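ok here's NAD(P)-dependent dehydrogenase (Short-subunit alcohol dehydrogenase family), seq below lol
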Amino acid sequence: MNGTTALDGKVALVTGGSRGIGAAVALRLAEDGADVALTYQGSAELADEVVAKITAMGRSGWAVRADSADPEAVCGAVAAVADRFTRLDILVNNAGVGAVGPIEAVTCDQIDRVLAVNVRAPYLYAQAALRYLVGGGRIVNIGSCIAQRVAFPGGVLYATSKAALIGFTKGMARELGPHGVTVNLVHPGPTDTDMNPGDGDSADFQRGFTALGRYGTAAEVADAVSYLAGESARYVTGAELAVDGGFAA
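and the structure came out like this:
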């Protein structure tokens, strides 16, 4: 890649960046000029494929295994990335898990894991990143349209976890504003990924809740993250940006 791009010289960490929305975000930030580290929990092969694409763009990429349910792994991943790249400018809290079912059927183990990955981990990732983020730093959290509109039963636990990110984002924005660090939240709607394919069994059902009548793409979510991570969003903080096709309209 030749020439100067928007995020030249920046280093980004994308959690859960080996596939789906996380992979699209990692690749878009690299396209914008950033060196990008990503965490993965399961497939090293998929993570390596994303890193190879980042490298092919002329950027530095790195994948580090970290289970977001493990506090030590979370803090260790941030420290390892900062050590390898000597800085950290952008944190994208994307890693997440879900559990769908009637409220009476959800187990304590499911509650603990969903809240650990979707709520505690973003807090810990941000907490660990603060020592490296300086003026102009960015934190972008990935929420869900379900946090704004629970349109069907069975999503109580997931909605609870993603709604928690609203308060987290606003509180962090207020606290970090004096330091020149912005914190924002992106709410994807039904998005075509391997976890929720646009041709899956529930795809028509989910599409029906959107104003545009279609699934989004991971690249469309990545576009929003790119904006919030860049200089154009320097006066945007504590904001929720819905990329949901009108799901919450």
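fwiw The longest strand covers residues 182-188. kinda neat tbh
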